[in-house]
Amino acid sequence: MKINCLVIDDERLAREYLKNYISKIPELELLGDFNSPLKATELIKKGEVDLLFIDIQMPDITGIEFVKSLTYKPEIIFTTAYQEYALEGFNLSAIDYLLKPFSFERFFQAVIKVIDKLGDKSEKNIQPQLPEDVQTTYTESYLSIRADRKFYKINFDDIKYIEGQKAYVTFHTQKKRITALASLKELEESLPKKQFIRIHKSYIVSIKEILSLEGNIIEVDDIKLPVGKLYKEDVMKVFGI
Fold first, then answer.
1. Which of 126, 136, 149, 213 is deepest in the core (most CB within 10 A)?
2. pTM of the predicted model, to two decimals?
3. Phi (first) and psi of residue 208, to 5 degrees
């Protein structure tokens, strides 16, 4: 699935940051970037734009005014330094609101919402393909994962839980969160069975980090995670039930 997107921001540096972030996500296809909403009008009218990253405060017309003027509205992610516009942005059914300066991780979280929403409409049974340059290596005590020209070394003992999001996973570790291209199914098959358990289609957790089970909710490091029906029996075994 390819999501055609545009960037509209009157600040050149802001556009460059967004273009860099967009280049890291295979599902996003950048059609162009503009310093004024008025320059993007014709392209949007053609109906080929799926997602619009747009600043709010701009000289010619504000991002909010521009979005209100559109007959055909792509998915909207507002990018701005002004938090006071958040409510009005969401009233326009914006999918997210990024407060500058924002990290790639925060940007990625917003994009995942778009991927999920558009994927639900058109590709329910199609999973995004991982790029060929993604490599994952496992040893007895850690895994190393290559993605986006970087290598990540993740110790098994440091992992609290792993969250799957389409073709991506986020490793929630003792020190930080690491988001990378990977397959949750491959991780489930390759991680040490004595240390990790799949509890949901979207979660793998470290057994030693599990604090409690109440109904279909597991508590891991003060975070509550759902237990899927298919995995409930295996989870019960962790508690000797």
1. 136
2. 0.56
3. -70, -15
For residue 44, name the pLDDT band (cuts at 50, 70, 90): very high
pLDDT > 70: percent of the chain: 88
Q: Which carries the bigger pLDDT value, residue 236 or residue 181?
A: 236
Q: What is the pLDDT of residue 133?
A: 42
**Whether residue 137 has pLDDT greater than 90:** no
Q: Which domains does the chain have, with CATH numbers?
A: 3-122 (3.40.50.2300), 135-238 (2.40.50.1020)
**C-alpha closest to that of 210 among 237, 170, 179, 177:** 237
For residues 166 and 158, what is the distance between their CA atoms, to the nearest angstrom?
A: 23
Length of the chain counted residue by residue: 241
